[in-house]
Specification:
Elements (H helix, E strand, L loop, with lengths): L3 E7 L20 H7 L18 H8 L11 H18 L3 E6 L3 E7 L5 H18 L27 E2 L2 H17 L17 H4 L5
Antiparallel strand pairs: 1-3, 1-4, 2-3
Helix pairs in contact: 1-2, 3-4
Length: 208
């Protein structure tokens, strides 16, 4: 039974569908990306492949074919993303037990919710984007689309491996909490993150 999710969301340009280490995409929607890096490199694994040896030159060349510059959040922008998440959590009641916002991607551990995890992530991205725009620091704010909006600063979709035991949740929380320091960044503390209470598992409705 699914109790929670370890959500991984990339900034625009973070993990391409034809990343040589593998990806969760089954096709490459951009012809320019396809010509630069080939077809999608789908892998069904839910484990991180970030440390897998790969062709760095090919990866860098493929990123040059992106329509917009790859997004890397500054510290101020990361704080705005967190503020957007805080606003969403306050309104929705989503349980968040860990969060790490890095320059090119983010990790969260969230409890099972009344809507699908895909919908939750869409709403979290929307809340973060609204805050970036309101603060005047959208990373692609210098680009205007025909509809008057800015290009999306988050990649499409997400990776959200499910966690079905209390032990899995604790492991994921530790992993996420340690992520910033592993990347050479200060430890993060967000107001919307609450301490995980194992009794949460008892409150999740059992499958019939």
């Amino acid at each position: 039974m699914v109790l929670a999710y370890h959500v991984i969301v990339g900034a625009y340009g973070f993990w391409l569908p034809n990343d040589p280490r593998g990806s969760w995409s089954r096709f490459v929607g951009s012809s320019d990306l396809f010509r630069a890096g080939g077809s999608a490199t789908f892998t069904p694994t839910t484990k991180s492949v970030a440390a897998v040896a790969h062709d760095w030159a090919l990866r860098a060349k493929t990123k040059e074919a992106l329509k917009y510059p790859a997004v890397r959040f500054t510290g101020i922008q990361a704080r705005a993303v967190g503020n957007g998440f805080a606003e969403y959590v306050a309104k929705s009641g989503l349980q968040v037990w860990a969060c790490a916002i890095l320059p090119d991607h983010l990790h969260m551990v969230v409890g099972r919710f009344r809507t699908s995890i895909e919908q939750v992530v869409i709403q979290l991205k929307g809340a973060a984007t609204e805050r970036l725009v309101a603060d005047g620091i959208h990373p692609l704010g210098h680009i205007k689309l025909p509809n008057g909006r800015h290009p999306k600063c988050f990649s499409r979709g997400e990776c959200s491996p499910f966690l079905d035991t209390v032990e899995d949740i604790f492991r994921a929380i530790v992993y996420v909490e340690e992520n910033p320091e592993k990347a050479g960044l200060p430890k993060q503390k967000w107001s919307f993150v609450t301490q995980f209470d194992p009794s949460f598992a008892d409150a999740v409705p059992q499958a019939p």
